[in-house]
Structures are given as C-alpha cells and as structure tokens.
C-alpha cells in the first residue's frame, strides 16, 4: 500500500516544475493533464520515497514514470527521454503495484 509522503514547504513549487518539464520533454499541449506526486511505500523492495508522474497525450493514452527520490530533489535530467514515450504507456496490467 502506498501513502502520501511527508509535507515539504517546497513541494508545491517542485510539483509545478516537474509538470512543466514533463510538458516540455514530451511536447504536450498546455491543456494536457499532468500529475506529479510524492509517495511513500512500505512494501519491501520499494524505495522509501518516490515521485510518480502521470500524463495523458493528445490521443488519450495514459503514461507513467517514476523517479526514486523525493519530489523536491527531482531534476530535469531525471525525466525519461522523449523517445521512450511508448515504453511509458500505463495499461494498469503491468503488475507494478509495489514500485
């Protein structure tokens, strides 16, 4: 089970920054839905805190990637390259519940 991680005073700004970088990296429209959240995972083998980014492309396909660090520590170079877009498709059937 994942749960929201601790609150950080810089978390809101970091979230906005990551959303902007995601739009830029994947050439998403300004109106594209992008979410970024920091979560804690108590399941053995999962990183204790990770950042999860979910976004939808213009064709309605949902994509997801994770960065294994707190949201305030994520930098632009942590985002996957744009050419990996197809590998980021989130079909809910991948068995990635733990991480």
Find the structural class using helix and strand composition. alpha+beta
Q: How many domain modules?
A: 1
What profile does the largest beta sheet have? Answer: 4 strands, antiparallel
CATH class call: Alpha Beta
- What is the CATH topology classification name? Double Stranded RNA Binding Domain
Radius of gyration: 13 Å
> What is the straight-line distance between the termini?
10 Å
Protein architecture, described:
By secondary structure, the protein is of the alpha+beta class. It has a single domain (3-88), classed as Double Stranded RNA Binding Domain. The protein has 1 helix and 4 strands; from the N terminus they run E-H-E-E-E. The protein has one helix spanning 11-25; strands at residues 3-4, 34-40, 49-56, 62-67. It has a 4-stranded antiparallel beta sheet, with helices on one face. It is globular, with a radius of gyration of 13 Å. 14% of the residues are buried.
